Amino acid sequence: MMRRLRTPERWRQALLTAIVSGLLALPGIALATVEENGATFETSIELGGENLALSGTGVAKYRVVFTVYAAAFYVPPQTARAEVLEADTPRRLEIEYFHDISSEDIIEAANTKLDDQLAADEHAQLESQVERFHALFTDVSPGDRYRMDYTPSEGIELRFNGEPVGTVEGGDFARAYFAIWLDEKDPLSSTLRDNLLAGTE
Domain Chalcone isomerase: where (predicted)? Predict the structure, then answer.
């Protein structure tokens, strides 16, 4: 009995499958990721209907000895460094942790830096938003990730290991919170800030 020949459409489907499979096997093409201290981050994402590019990655250290986490920062392509915090555009900060850290310690570190950066009246205006945002945090273990996605008119959505846990509104709040890492005068770490902003103009 003669075997029935495949139709041209089936051949096209088979060829497409082979091409896609081949691309997935080639590093740097389909994956489009970068590695920072063992943590892998995508080089481009979509947020709020807009394409964002990876600006940079870096690590946070504790007393120079312990690498606490790796971070990646995303902004619209060709964003100027001076506009990172001032422009009301989408942005993302993604963090992967390398140690067990309590939510209390994460919150304390953030509050300490906000106290340093904000004037008393600014801090008072943002206090309720900061408290609501910090109430969303939980303890982390090695490999856990927090992701902060800012979308204009919506606010910062916090995700834990990819799952949404809550959103806090406000462009002023987003500017102040991202400044913990990105402030030009007094960031959490100037080295980390410069690495995260390496791709800005």
Answer: 36-197
